[in-house]
């Protein structure tokens, strides 16, 4: 009888457990019975013969696992991608399978030698969508997936395996007729589970128990509505039967000793190509990445964003810059299961600097604001990168670029204006960009040259202690250049600057003309004034390092004194405050802004307890900054980071690496993190500036 389905098998004449390359083989070396294996294999053969035409590849002595024909390669239409086995124990099977495919008229594709991929053991065609579920994590490499997508012209969804018992995808995942998927979720990482859940509707997902999973229920051969497997629990059989499947069990315990069962022992050699995926909501967009893609890791991050966001990708082209200074260009096709996943991925790609190709550009979608201070649903959330928006057939540069805003499109004096606005500032009647179409961000490629004006020295890196001195040299160099050309440096500082003895150094920086605005909270000013008036910081004698009796009240006394005079500036003018960081700000006309917080004592009369006013004041002082030095205040530094557009260099100094990483990790290539004691940092910085200017003190 002829069948529509053809299955390749390899008789078990040389099968044995001769080595250990998966957890199932442990303790089973030479423990399987050849006779028993032959009879189980023959029984499987007879069962399958009822549903498919069986073809055979000749087994070879010395290659015991050749019986697992699923790992011969991956067939789609008349093409096959030959396996590249990870373990040398199986690599000798490759030429025999290669010959069989060639003899049977397939076009054979071979991967580079160092790129493992284990055929249909790790790649399964979805029976409804036509895409390829491809596993990686143990045997096959993720890097092999783009080759599969390219050679077989198929959409690839990568799934990461995390449980070594389920080392091949077909041990824990089985796409079935009518779009069902039978699988064991704990075998996959969280992202892969999410991807499965996004692609396969809940009613089509058949989750198996651990018992069924270790009995290799997912290692099933499915032909039409028949599923052939080693063993299934009554519960699983009932579920499958409810969904219209007939379960045929055939014991394969001898092969379980080597980590395989029904599906591993077979390879479907008829896999018709589905040209158009049936799932109609699947969307594709082509993005273009440009810059020092490899050096900056943008490519990896972009592909990560796509797969972790629930999409898949196909690299259409990749022109690698030939010289170190050359830029590279990549075109990547992004596919997502629906519009919301696509928008989410695109939003993140835009943050990375991925740009839609102009030919794909459709105008931005606008939606009206119907309530003051509230954006329409799905509004586009802005990033720190300069952006343009396509309205009608014109691109408009977004003004007032900052993170976490919305793009409002308005008419001002007859001109269309796109402006970045905070939600609270949106007004009824304005239109706001929704979705992610028609947005273009301009991201400067990170410099890789040394000795330029850029912070190329450290890139967006986070330094360790041993590198601090080198970083300080670079920062001193930049401060000097910015000051000398009339640029602007803003300092954000927390009270730790005072506690660690950094005050005298910060003072010198202000006196030396290196600071053009100071931002902080109540505390930096309170502790500075306490130190200046009473010689203590939080009650500790700063010179002797011991607590002073009654010292714990000193900071309140300092606050009280300033309150009496109405402001810090008045206290300076009246000769009450005669030294310190705040004194120097007043004396040197360096504007400062103190933003309030719930934990503030007093507060000082200068501290702005209306946070909206405080944010506006910070934004005013940050405007035009070339460099922001963030000194040991997580609260104020994050606040400042959020309102700073790309292009402003940021240096974040904190003793806690997590804080530094958080601040440096805004995708901004201009940020540098320094993990160190802020007092030490400031003292090194002043020393270095003295060296640069050839003076013993910054100010004589
Ligand atoms: N008396 C007061 O009114 C008072 C006192 C304290 C804080 N506050 C207010 O609370 C808010 C948050 O205060 P904050 O900015 O101090 O706290 P924060 O937690 O935001 O930041 C302090 C940072 O300093 C880091 N740090 C600690 N020791 C360090 C060292 N030796 N060198 C380098 N970094 C070090 C920490 O890791 C942390 O990230 C501010 O608005 C502040 O004004 C008020």
Automatic annotation (TrEMBL):
Residues 387-472 form the Arginine dihydrolase ArgZ/ArgE-like C-terminal first subdomain domain. One of its GO terms (molecular function) is nucleotide binding. Pfam families: ArgZ-like_C_1st, ArgZ-like_C_2nd, Saccharop_dh_N. The keyword Lyase applies. Its EC number is 4.3.1.12. It is an enzyme of class 4 (lyase). This is ornithine cyclodeaminase. It comes from Phormidesmis priestleyi Ana.
């Amino acid at each position: 009888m002829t069948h529509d389905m053809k299955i390749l098998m390899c008789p078990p004449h040389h099968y044995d457990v001769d080595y250990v390359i998966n957890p199932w083989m442990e303790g089973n070396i030479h423990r399987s019975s050849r006779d028993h294996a032959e009879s189980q294999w023959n029984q499987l053969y007879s069962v399958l013969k009822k549903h498919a035409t069986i073809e055979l590849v000749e087994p070879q002595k010395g290659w015991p696992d050749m019986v697992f024909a699923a790992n011969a390669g991956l067939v789609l239409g008349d093409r096959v991608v030959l396996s590249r086995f990870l373990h040398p124990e199986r690599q000798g099977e490759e030429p025999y399978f290669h010959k069989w495919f060639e003899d049977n008229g397939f076009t054979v594709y071979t991967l580079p030698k160092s790129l493992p991929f284990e055929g249909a053991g790790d790649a399964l065609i979805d029976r409804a969508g036509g895409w390829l579920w491809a596993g990686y994590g143990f045997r096959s490499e993720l890097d092999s997936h783009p080759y599969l997508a390219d050679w077989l012209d198929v959409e690839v969804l990568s799934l990461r395996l995390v449980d070594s018992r389920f080392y091949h995808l077909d041990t824990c995942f089985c796409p079935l007729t009518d779009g069902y998927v039978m699988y064991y979720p704990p075998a996959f990482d969280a992202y892969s589970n999410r991807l499965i859940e996004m692609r396969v509707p809940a009613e089509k997902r058949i989750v198996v128990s651990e018992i069924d999973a270790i009995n290799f229920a997912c290692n099933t051969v499915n032909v039409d509505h028949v599923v052939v497997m080693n063993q299934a629990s009554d519960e699983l059989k009932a579920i499958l039967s409810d969904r219209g499947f007939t379960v045929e069990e055939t014991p394969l315990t001898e092969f379980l000793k080597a980590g395989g069962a029904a599906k591993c022992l077979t390879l479907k050699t008829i896999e018709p190509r589905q040209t158009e995926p049936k799932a109609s909501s699947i969307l594709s967009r082509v993005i273009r990445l440009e810059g020092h893609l490899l050096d900056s890791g943008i490519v990896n991050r972009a592909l990560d964003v796509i797969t972790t966001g629930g999409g898949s990708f196909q690299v259409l082209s990749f022109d690698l810059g030939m010289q170190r200074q050359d830029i590279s260009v990549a075109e990547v096709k992004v596919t997502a299961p629906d519009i919301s996943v696509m928008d989410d991925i695109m939003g993140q790609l835009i943050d990375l600097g991925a740009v839609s190709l102009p030919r794909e550009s459709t105008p931005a979608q606008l939606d009206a604001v119907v309530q003051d201070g509230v954006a329409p649903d799905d509004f586009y959330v802005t990033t720190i990168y300069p952006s343009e928006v396509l309205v009608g057939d014109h691109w408009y540069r977004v003004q007032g670029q900052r993170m976490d805003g919305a793009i409002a499109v308005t008419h001002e004096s007859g001109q269309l204006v796109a402006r970045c606005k905070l939600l609270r500032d949106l007004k009824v009647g304005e239109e706001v960009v929704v979705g992610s179409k028609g947005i273009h961000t301009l991201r400067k490629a990170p410099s890789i040259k040394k000795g330029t004006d850029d912070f190329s020295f450290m890139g967006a890196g986070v330094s360790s202690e041993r590198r601090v001195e080198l970083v300080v040299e670079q920062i001193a160099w930049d401060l000097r250049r910015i000051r000398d050309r009339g640029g602007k440096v803003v300092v954000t500082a927390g009270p730790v600057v005072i506690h660690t003895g950094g005050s005298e150094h910060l003072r010198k920086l202000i006196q030396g003309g290196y600071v053009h605005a100071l931002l902080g909270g109540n505390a930096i000013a309170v502790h500075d004034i306490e130190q200046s008036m009473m010689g203590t910081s939080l009650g500790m004698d700063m010179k002797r390092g011991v607590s002073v009796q009654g010292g714990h009240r000193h900071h309140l006394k300092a606050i009280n004194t300033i309150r009496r005079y109405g402001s810090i500036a008045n206290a300076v003018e009246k000769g009450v405050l005669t030294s310190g960081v705040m004194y120097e700000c007043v004396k040197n006309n360096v504007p400062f802004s103190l933003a309030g917080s719930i934990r503030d004592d007093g507060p000082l009369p200068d501290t702005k307890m209306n946070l909206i006013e405080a944010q506006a004041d910070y934004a005013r002082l940050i405007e035009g900054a070339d460099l922001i030095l963030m000194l040991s205040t997580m609260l104020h530094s994050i606040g400042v980071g959020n309102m700073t557009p790309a292009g402003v260099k940021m240096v974040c100094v904190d003793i806690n690496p997590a804080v530094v990483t958080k601040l440096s990790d805004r995708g901004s290539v201009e940020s540098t993190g320094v993990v160190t004691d802020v007092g030490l940092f400031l003292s090194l910085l002043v020393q270095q500036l003295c060296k640069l200017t050839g003076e013993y003190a910054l100010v004589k």
